[in-house]
Amino acid sequence: NAGVMQNPRHLVRRRGQEARLRCSPMKGHSHVYWYRQLPEEGLKFMVYLQKENIIDESGMPKERFSAEFPKEGPSILRIQQVVRGDSAAYFCASSPPGVAGGYEQYFGPGTRLTVT
Amino acid sequence: AQSVTQLGSHVSVSEGALVLLRCNYSSSVPPYLFWYVQYPNQGLQLLLKYTTGATLVKGINGFEAEFKKSETSFHLTKPSAHMSDAAEYFCAVSDPEGANSKLTFGKGITLSVRP
Prior knowledge:
The complex is a heterodimer of chains A (116) and B (115). Chain A is an all-beta fold and 116 residues long. Chain A has strands at 5-7, 10-13, 19-24, 31-37, 43-50, 53-56, 65-68, 75-79, 88-95, 106-107, 111-115. The radius of gyration of chain A is 13 Å and the shape is globular. Chain B has 115 residues and is mainly beta. Helix content of chain B is 0%, strand content 50%. Chain B has no helices and 12 strands. Chain B has strands at 3-5, 10-14, 19-21, 24-26, 32-38, 44-50, 56-58, 64-68, 73-78, 87-94, 104-105, 109-114. In chain B, strands 2, 5, 6, 10, 11 and 12 form a 6-stranded mixed beta sheet that branches. In chain B, strands 3-9-8-7 form a 4-stranded antiparallel beta sheet, with no helix packed on it. A two-stranded antiparallel sheet of chain B has the order 1-4. In chain B, a hairpin with a 5-residue loop joins strand 7 and strand 8 (64-68). The A-B interface holds A 4, 31, 33, 35, 40-45, 48, 55-56, 59, 91, 93, 95, 100-110, 112 and B 4, 9, 32, 34, 36, 41-46, 49, 51, 90, 94-108.
């Protein structure tokens, strides 16, 4: 059973470009979470999605960031017009369907975004 | 709102010594509690979790943690450190009553193990 997959593992973008980060959850998992890890900080929640629905986006910056989890295909975190402050590691996690809260989240290896 | 405090950013122990990593939380209701480990340039791996039941929880790699409601703590311990334990450790909480289970993380503690 493959784990959570993220690609690319490393992404370099120039200021003003767009970044697209992909996440394929574990088989059978229908909940996807995105977290951002800035240097010297812990992980910060960004958004929680289920298939075709955004459940909680309270951690998403109001501008330039968007996320989706379509019926088919991976979840996408999209950052438009990137700035240097967007440089970070972005982690995706997934959990199985069912009662929220008690199920551990399984993390992918992350995408390390560098904005030059 | 929930929060997690991990005092200090770095702990160094000798190989074979006791490992103690502290975690305190703030929450209006007792949360679910988790410890994750992150090795360099990798994702997070679950060490152990507490939801309900026995307050002493055993995890992988010889780690365990005890939930103490009166102290709002969930400290991680291991009797004897191995070199392979060197990594970053994160304590996290989630809301058992909330509509979703997003994790709130502490800032993490880097564990170094001296030969």
